[in-house]
Design a protein that fits this description.
Pfam families: SMC_ScpB. It comes from Xanthobacter dioxanivorans. This is SMC-Scp complex subunit ScpB. InterPro entries: ScpB_csome_segregation, WH-like_DNA-bd_sf, WH_DNA-bd_sf. The protein has a three-stranded antiparallel β-sheet. Strands 4-6-5 form a three-stranded antiparallel β-sheet. It has eleven helices and six strands. Helix 1 crosses helix 3. It is an alpha+beta fold.
Length: about 240
């Protein structure tokens, strides 16, 4: 008589049989293992599947980061999740040893960088509005290239005659440039407060002040849309 296949036991997330300190260490190991095994940033809801209901993921992540403090890689918040990334100080060593980072895998022209910058700050935005910003039509090739790089995607239709599609940035954009959320863009609030980050001014053709202001803030934040690899090993 054939044996019935054994029913797998449910995954124990609570670990109630362990002392609190060992339980915490096991949760730390699980969370770090899941993040380490993933090529993409891991979201909170994914990590919550391997820890107890009362576990604070934020405190857990803080403890993992503390343990990695002396290591050549770190745990960073990016694109709404967490990911292991090589520290920037080791970028040159990686380049010398492997050749990684000698070329930009996603090169952008200056014009494409400015278009992407405008979309990032003013999304959702239509191609027509971008054309008004720059005083000329933005080609479909430019939009297509940015979409092909997974930096932008189609957003909701604009509530104007013809209801054209808008464009928004993606999680791929956040991940590539090392941002957790769009609020991490170079001093966005300061630019808004100074009146330099205004969609109305851009539509009126005041592109120069926008470009100069963002570039100045970008210099302070070491942020460059044209050359800002997500992994410091590619710097």
């Amino acid at each position: 008589m054939a044996r019935r296949p054994r029913t797998p036991e449910p995954f124990d997330t609570e670990l109630a049989h362990l002392p609190s300190e060992l339980r915490w260490r096991e949760w730390m190991g699980r969370v770090e293992a899941v993040i380490f095994a993933s090529p993409e940033p891991v979201l909170r809801e994914v990590l919550a599947r391997v820890v107890g209901r009362d576990c604070s993921l934020d405190l857990l992540i803080d403890d993992i980061r503390a343990e990695l403090r002396g290591r050549p890689y770190e745990l960073v918040a990016v694109a709404g999740g967490w990911q292991h990334r090589t520290k920037k100080s080791f970028a040159e060593a990686i380049r010398v040893a492997t050749g990684l980072g000698t070329t930009d895998p996603k090169p952008l022209s200056k014009a494409e960088s400015l278009v992407l910058m405008a979309i990032a700050y003013f999304q959702p935005i239509t191609r027509g509005e971008l054309g008004k910003f720059f005083g000329k039509e933005i080609s479909r090739d430019t939009i297509g290239h940015l979409r092909g790089l997974d930096f932008i995607a189609t957003g909701p239709r604009s509530p104007v005659p013809g209801a054209p599609y808008t464009y928004v940035t993606t999680k791929g954009f956040l991940s590539y440039f090392g941002f957790d959320t769009l609020r991490d863009l170079p001093d966005m609030e300061a630019l808004e407060d100074a009146g330099l980050l205004s969609k109305e001014r851009m539509l009126a053709g005041d592109l120069l002040s926008f470009g100069l202001a963002v570039e100045a803030e970008a210099d302070d934040a070491t942020f460059d849309l044209a050359d800002h690899p997500a992994d410091p090993s590619e710097a």
